[in-house]
Amino acid sequence: MQLLINQGLLKYVTKAKIEIKRAQIVEMLNLELFEQQSNFPIGTPTEIIQATRENVYNNSNLKKMGNEVIVENTSTTEYGKEVDIYFYVQVDEDAYKVDMTGAKYIENRDSVYTLTYEDLSKGSSNKASILDKLYNGYAGVSLRGYNNTWPSDWYGLNTPHIELTMDLSNYTTLVFYVRKVANHGSSYVWIGDDNVYAKGYLELSTDWSLVEIDITKYNGNYPVRFVGGYGDRTGTTASETQYAYIQLKK
After folding, report:
1. Does 11 share its domain with 102?
2. Partners of 175 in the beta sheet?
3. What Å distances lie between residue 122 and 116, 119, 164, CA to CA?
4. Residue 163 and residue 94 share a domain
């Protein structure tokens, strides 16, 4: 009986410590937000949230709150919908959302699956380098090379690409960050035979861009192919495209 009581007390104390830590982090994030709201009394939400995110990123006290602290970039889309600007903070297994309404602990972060280095390493690829921490501490892939059969070979094996077999059941959104690094880097994403995303080299930015794709119609296992640049028409100019922080959201 005494053992059961002690185990119950230990579980209660552990839970209380976790809740206290979460409350401290929320308070810390709110203080950063309130400070920027004071600094920009007539500032736009974009100005305030971006300044808050910058201060949070450089907050040394926050970095002591966990073994792994990741401050994500700001965004105005969530689960495929336009929303007010916000950013996420990941502290070990916990996630927090910061927007103009304040900071809050996110309980349903488990509804997001982030592809790991190991996941990407299982894919079939051509001219691809898997990187453990390519973007904001998350794994990604760099596709560098060219082919000389553009545009007929966007989906072909000669094009720089990585193909992953993914179970898309119960997920609604495919999310990733993408950028071109060199020359004619472009981006094409295929799910099965469907070209669900296309950005030519003139459109694709050298800055990381967030992409969210509705995948509600796909149920079961599908080949998902991330394709890099094609070079020029003669195949003499190499290109480089990078994908990172690839997620499936419910």
Report:
1. yes
2. 212, 247
3. 10, 6, 7
4. no
Residues 87 and 58 reside in one and the same domain = yes
Q: Which of 109, 127, 142 is the last residue of a domain?
A: 109
Quick one: tokens of 104?
Answer: 């809050």
Last residue of a domain, one of 52, 76, 109: 109
Band of pLDDT at residue 149, cut at 50, 70 and 90: very low
- Residues 138 and 96 reside in one and the same domain: no
Are residues 13 and 87 located together in one domain of the fold?
yes
Backbone angles phi, psi at 80, to 5 degrees: 80, 5
Please say whether the beta carbons of 212 and 175 come within 8 A: yes
pLDDT, tens only, 79-131 = 556 778 999 998 987 889 999 999 988 765 667 788 888 889 988 887 888 98
Report the alpha-carbon angle 144-150-153, nearest 5. Answer: 80
Of 217 and 183, more confident: 217
Tell me the C-alpha distance between 239 and 181, whole Å. Answer: 8
**pLDDT band for position 30 (cuts 50, 70, 90):** very high
**191/217 Cα distance (integer angstroms):** 11
Work out how many domains the chain is built from and give that number.
2
Query: What is the model's pLDDT at position 93?
Result: 78
